Design the sequence.
């Protein structure tokens, strides 16, 4: 008969088992006969039966005691609750004060007793004389029990042996409205009434316990039978001796041995395996993937695949792993692995790993430092990269002038710009703190000599300790023991110093790490210097741009205006706006955007704004003004062909006339203006868009709208409604919603719009103007039509004098009549019909004479022998300002005079 091969972990049969096999006795019978009750299986069986029996008995006893205790507690709680409820019931106190309390309270007490399932409820006088009792013959007798605390207003709950058995009774006071005790109420129940649960549950508990005992005995028998097969009937001593031999051999070898079952659970690991893999004490029985091993090693052990001398880096050890399955020899599914320490190769691999880590740090520095053109953020990126990969604490100290974008000033104070560490609470200087290092400090030596300084052991560095004796002592006590300082050099400029501190690793910095620190700081210095230069250029551009924008708005009465200008966070752009008073009490609003950022965009914006001022002084129509701007942009592009073209600049120009309440607008590639009507309705004016400035070729078109008084005209640049994560259509919808919600005033409207549309990071400039329209009333306007007859000039002068009298401006009559005489005479003599005269009382007194001729008069100086040519000269001398503007029907010559200080009309807001 062939013998079944044994598995690698199957124990060799004992002598008794072999003899039983040779006699063809069923396996396991011979050991049972030989060992009897001394076998391990029998002992386990008896022990388990005794344990189960003890547990059942303990459970029954505990249940009985618990139920009895719960019954007593329930009796006490029910007695007290019923007594207090009856004592506080409506009418109880009044019944005690009645002539016959028993007649009133006895029926109530009996009804309450039956409803609450109590044995008695007794109401008594403060002296303890019963008014009620379940047995009427006991009414009028003294209550048996403790009542003194209740007479004082307290409560009494006690266990007593009464005539009806062991009971719990509670006594509580009945108080009148003024707090006096006018009676007592006692409620009681026998413990037998609430303790019947044990008697009802005990049979069920006993039956359940018996069933549990039978099941446990049967299960124990099955376990003992299986144990008998597994131990082959061996006794404890023989098994102990066999285990000791096995354990001695297993843990004496200098190779790690691991046995893993088919599910990836660690079944056995010898001492060497624990040491090599740094396994926890409770590793046996856990899955190898949950033992904290690296992914490659854990995956190999869990997979069970066959390997030979496969090398794995585990912690600081190189292990050669051999693994074979166990089921090939008839054993259980799983695998056995042996581990051999190959750390002799560690030195070579360690140097290669160190070089790779340093290359990784330098590569990360190249891509991770300098992501933004901000000096402070660049310094922070350096500290975040170096901690904890290179040092445990890193601090960057720069000159104040560097942070502001200026060149460093040798000898000036440093400021801690960034600091990062692996732990909080380090006693190093805080971020933002100004610093002045003594000459012997490593940082001062780095700045003075322009090289890195290594202080391998800070405890032994008197020069470093001289900086601040108290603080340096705290630094050493905190655990920081080694330091490298490296100057931040950009060419010939020294921008500051970087300090690398070590505390977690016990070994100090070495010369190789000094070289790495220098390379790391050298790469960061370039980006810090770039950020400094950008900061300087940004500050210059912002200063230039703000100097070119209007600082205050001019005085005018046609519009109530609020505005906002917000430069971009990434760089100054070319957005701009302006408010320009025009003749005839009109006001021009302009907003524009020059594509790009920086000094070039700001300078171009200044040139365009200046041009708009000059063109507006000519009283040009919006489409004509934009046409001239378009030509100007073309000339700017042609002046310097090497520079980037200005093509893409946009502009919106609007003129509002408070007399007619009409607004004329034209735009060159700019977003349309929004109009908020007095009733809150929002619409975007349909102004023909036109091409951006600089493209040329097509004329611009205008649109003329009549705006009710109190309307709000909203002009803005595209930075308000368009961003990287929001297209312009969505932005216009949000703007319309914000305008609909905003209050009527220009200033609240500006706040509401910016709160709703301002992005988290502003990548473009934003210019916003909100203008609420006003109307110049009919009482401030006078107009006459003049026939083409020089004799009519006198009639006009008389009419003007009367109107000035009505306006209480008689002192201006002489000068006004002189101005009108000259202007009307010239219009009749050289102009064309019809001739009209208009007088406006605004912040100034404005005289306008219009005719159908497009010929403009010119100011000249008449010779002594000339008969004429002095009229316009007199007008220019008398009037504060004068000029000519053209219309579709001719021209208007206007002159304005200042009003007396006490006659100027207030402007309603």
Sequence:
């Amino acid at each position: 008969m062939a013998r079944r091969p044994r598995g690698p972990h199957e124990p060799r049969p004992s002598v008794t088992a072999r003899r039983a096999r040779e006699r063809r006795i069923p396996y396991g019978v011979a050991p049972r006969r030989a060992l009897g009750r001394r076998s391990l299986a029998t002992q386990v069986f008896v022990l388990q039966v005794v344990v189960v029996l003890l547990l059942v008995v303990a459970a029954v006893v505990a249940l009985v005691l618990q139920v009895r205790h719960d019954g007593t507690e329930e009796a006490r709680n029910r007695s007290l609750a019923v007594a207090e409820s009856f004592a506080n019931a409506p009418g109880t106190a009044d019944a005690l004060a009645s002539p016959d309390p028993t007649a009133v309270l006895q029926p109530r007490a009996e009804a309450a007793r039956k409803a609450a399932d109590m044995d008695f409820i007794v109401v008594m006088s403060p002296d303890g004389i019963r008014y009620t009792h379940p047995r009427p013959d006991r009414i009028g007798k003294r209550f048996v029990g403790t009542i003194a605390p209740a007479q004082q207003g307290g409560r009494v709950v006690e266990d007593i042996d009464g005539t009806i058995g062991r009971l719990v009774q509670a006594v509580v006071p009945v108080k009148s409205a003024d707090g006096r005790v006018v009676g007592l109420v006692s409620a009681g129940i026998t413990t037998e009434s609430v303790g019947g649960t044990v008697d009802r549950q005990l049979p069920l508990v006993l039956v359940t316990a018996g069933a549990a005992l039978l099941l446990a005995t049967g299960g124990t028998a099955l376990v003992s039978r299986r144990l008998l097969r597994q131990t082959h009937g061996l006794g404890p001593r023989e098994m102990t001796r066999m285990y000791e031999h096995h354990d001695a051999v297993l843990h004496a070898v200098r190779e790690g041995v691991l046995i893993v079952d088919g599910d990836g659970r660690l079944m056995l690991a010898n001492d060497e395996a624990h040491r090599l893999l740094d396994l926890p004490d409770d590793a046996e029985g856990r899955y190898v993937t949950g033992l904290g091993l690296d992914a490659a090693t854990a995956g190999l052990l869990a997979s069970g695949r066959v390997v030979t001398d496969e090398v794995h880096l585990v912690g600081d050890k190189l292990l050669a792993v051999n693994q074979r399955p166990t089921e090939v020899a008839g054993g259980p599914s799983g695998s056995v692995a042996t581990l051999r320490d190959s750390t002799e190769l560690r030195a070579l691999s360690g140097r290669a790993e160190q070089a790779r880590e340093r290359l990784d740090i330098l590569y990360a520095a190249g891509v991770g430092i300098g992501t933004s053109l901000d000096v402070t953020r660049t310094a922070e990126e350096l500290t975040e990269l170096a901690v904890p990969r290179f040092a445990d604490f890193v601090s960057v100290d720069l000159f104040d002038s560097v942070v502001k974008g200026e060149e460093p000033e040798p000898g000036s104070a440093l400021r801690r710009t960034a600091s990062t560490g692996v732990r909080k609470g380090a006693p190093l200087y805080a971020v933002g703190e100004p610093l002045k290092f003594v000459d012997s400090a490593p940082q001062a030596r780095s700045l003075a000599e322009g090289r890195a300084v290594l202080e391998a052991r800070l405890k032994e560095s008197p020069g470093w300790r001289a900086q601040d004796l108290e603080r340096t002592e705290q630094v050493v006590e905190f655990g920081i023991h080694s330091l490298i300082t490296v100057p931040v050099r950009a060419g010939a400029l020294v921008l500051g110093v970087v300090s690398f501190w070590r505390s977690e690793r016990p070994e100090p910095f070495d010369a190789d790490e000094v070289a790495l620190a220098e390379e790391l700081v050298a790469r960061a210095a370039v980006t810090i210097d770039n950020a400094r230069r950008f900061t300087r250029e940004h500050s210059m551009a912002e200063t230039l741009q703000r100097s070119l924008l209007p600082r205050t708005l001019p005085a005018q009465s046609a519009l109530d205006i609020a505005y906002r200008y917000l430069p971009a966070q990434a760089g100054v752009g070319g957005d701009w706006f302006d408010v320009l008073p025009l003749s005839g009490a009109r006001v021009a609003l302009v907003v524009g955007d020059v594509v790009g950022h920086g000094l070039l965009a700001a300078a171009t914006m200044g040139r365009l704004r200046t041009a708009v001022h000059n063109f507006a002084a000519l009283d040009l129509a919006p489409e004509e003004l934009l046409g001239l701007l378009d030509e100007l942009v073309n000339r700017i592009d042609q002046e310097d062909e090497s520079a980037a073209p200005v093509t893409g600049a946009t502009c919106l120009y609007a003129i509002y006339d408070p007399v007619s309440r009409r607004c004329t607008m034209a735009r060159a590639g700019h977003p349309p203006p929004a109009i908020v009507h007095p009733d809150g309705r929002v619409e975007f004016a349909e102004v023909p868009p036109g091409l951006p400035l600089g493209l040329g070729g097509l004329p611009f078109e205008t649109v003329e709208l009549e705006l009710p008084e109190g309307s709000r005209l909203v002009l803005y640049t595209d930075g308000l409604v368009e961003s990287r994560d929001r297209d312009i259509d969505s932005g216009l919808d949000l703007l319309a919603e914000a305008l609909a919600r905003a209050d009527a005033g220009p200033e609240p409207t500006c706040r509401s719009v910016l709160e709703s549309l301002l992005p988290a990071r502003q990548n473009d400039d934003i210019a916003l103007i909100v203008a609420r329209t006003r109307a110049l009333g009919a009482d401030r306007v006078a107009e006459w039509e003049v026939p083409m007859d020089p004799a009519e000039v006198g009639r006009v002068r008389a009419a003007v004098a009367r109107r000035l009298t009505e306006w209480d401006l008689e002192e201006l009559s002489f000068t006004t009549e002189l101005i009108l005489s000259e202007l009307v005479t010239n219009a009749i003599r050289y102009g064309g019909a019809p001739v009209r005269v208009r007088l406006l009382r605004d912040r100034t007194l404005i005289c306008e004479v219009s005719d159908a001729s497009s010929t403009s008069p010119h100011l000249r100086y008449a010779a002594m022998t000339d008969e004429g040519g002095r009229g316009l000269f007199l007008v220019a001398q008398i009037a504060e300002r004068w000029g000519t503007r053209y219309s579709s029907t001719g021209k208007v010559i206007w002159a304005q005079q200042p009003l007396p200080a006490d006659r100027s009309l207030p402007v309603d807001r």
About this structure: The CA atoms of residues 111 and 900 lie 102 Å apart. Confidence is low (pLDDT under 50) at residues 1-37, 863-867. The first helix runs from residue 15 to 22.
